[in-house]
Amino acid sequence: MKSEKGQSLVEFALVLPLLILLLFGIIDFARVFHVYLTMDHAGREAARAASIGNDDTTIRNTAVSDAASIGLTADKVAISPGSRSSGSKVSITITYPITFLTPVIGEIVGSLNLTDTTTMRVE
Predict the structure, then answer these.
(1) How far is the CA of 34 from the CAs of 6, 72, 96, 121, in angstroms?
(2) How far, CA to CA in Å, does 56 sit from each of 49, 51, 68, 90, 112?
(3) How far apart are CA 71 and CA 67, in angstroms?
(4) Are 39 and 114 in contact, with CB atoms under 8 Å apart?
(5) What is the pLDDT of residues 14-62, one digit of tens each?
(6) In the beta sheet, which residues pair with residue 53?
(7) 1 falls within a domain
(8) Which of its termini does the chain have fewer beta carbons within 10 Å around, N or C?
(9) Which own/partner contact pairs does 73-78 have at CB distance under 8 Å and 24+ positions apart?
(10) Number of domains in the chain
(11) What separation in angstroms does the CA of 12 have from each of 22, 55, 71, 81?
(12) Is residue 58 part of a domain?
């Protein structure tokens, strides 16, 4: 029988890229999930601020402050309709671009825009 000293090294070299790709895929999924949950929370808080009659600047600032961990900016927060009366509904739409860390997934998918819309009745 021949020596098998290098066999495990070759097998490890073949499996290592797949393990690294799997690890970065898990990290990317966790990042996207975190952004989604943060956007959902910020949208609810901004919609609540809109439902009690706050102005647009206060509503946007509420969303931005609640989504500080993802670096949300006020230009990513849309409020509709502009004029709100008691009993009507107000919608807050937050759009946030995601870029992937995994090179292969990032090249295939590119940039992804997550959108969250929350609607509440104005009090």
Answers:
(1) 42, 13, 12, 27
(2) 9, 11, 18, 11, 27
(3) 7
(4) yes
(5) 999 999 989 988 999 999 999 999 999 999 999 999 999 888 999 999 9
(6) none
(7) no
(8) N
(9) 77/46
(10) 1
(11) 15, 59, 39, 58
(12) yes
pTM strictly above 0.90: no
Q: How many CB atoms lie within 10 A of CB 93?
A: 16
What is the residue range of 61's domain? 7-121
Beta bridge partners of 72: none
CA neighbours closer than 13 Å in the CB half-sphere of residue 44: 5
- Token pair for residue 96? 């946030």
Sheet holding 77-80, edge to edge: 77-80, 89-98, 112-121
26, part of any domain? yes
Site of tokens 């008691």: 86
Closest residue by Cα to residue 35 from 68, 2, 78: 68
